[in-house]
Amino acid sequence: MNERKTNRIGIAVVEHQRQFLIGVRDASSTLAGYHEFPGGKCEPGEASDICAARECREETGLDVQPLKELLYIEHAYEHADVLLHFWLCAPIQPAPDRDAQNLQGFCWIPASELSGLKFPEANAPLIDLLIDTYVGS
């Protein structure tokens, strides 16, 4: 019997002035073309908040401070089972400049625009939470 792989994923939900750091998965990756928050697989023994901050720095060049875990979601995709740890993070000073900063393909998207983006299925509860929290409040 072929046992499915389970991946623990630390995800940095980086918020600054009601905007979130969002990228698009490249053509060579799983779920290519979908929008994503910075994040990736946790190393063995690595806490998910440390992973989220590390992955954000590696993927965007931006240092962040994990503040609190927003959601924990277990999800089964065709390619793997994932344990998703979504961490609300804040940029470490200086505050990011939306236009001047090179974030390696990631950019700042207003919370009001999140519902129009194509995220992986497992992100749906997070997107709903962010819209409820940051849009019109």
From TrEMBL:
InterPro entries named among the record's database cross-references: MutT-like, MutY_C, NUDIX_hydrolase-like_dom_sf, NUDIX_hydrolase_dom
Key words, A-Z: DNA damage, DNA repair, DNA replication, Hydrolase, Magnesium, Metal-binding, Mutator protein
Pfam families in the cross-refs: NUDIX_4
SUPFAM superfamilies according to UniProt: Nudix
Domain of life: Bacteria
GO biological process: DNA repair; DNA replication
Lineage summary: Bacteria, Pseudomonadati, Planctomycetota, Planctomycetia, Planctomycetales
Gene (UniProt): mutT
Cofactor: Mg(2+)
Origin species: Gimesia panareensis
Keyword DNA repair: yes
Protein name: 8-oxo-dGTP diphosphatase
Catalytic activity: 8-oxo-GTP + H2O = 8-oxo-GMP + diphosphate + H(+); 8-oxo-dGTP + H2O = 8-oxo-dGMP + diphosphate + H(+)
UniProt GO molecular function: 8-oxo-7,8-dihydrodeoxyguanosine triphosphate pyrophosphatase activity; 8-oxo-7,8-dihydroguanosine triphosphate pyrophosphatase activity; 8-oxo-dGDP phosphatase activity; 8-oxo-GDP phosphatase activity; metal ion binding
Similarity-based family: Belongs to the Nudix hydrolase family.
EC numbers on record: 3.6.1.55
Top-level enzyme category: hydrolase
Limits of the Nudix hydrolase domain: 3-131
Gene3D superfamilies, per database record: Nucleoside Triphosphate Pyrophosphohydrolase
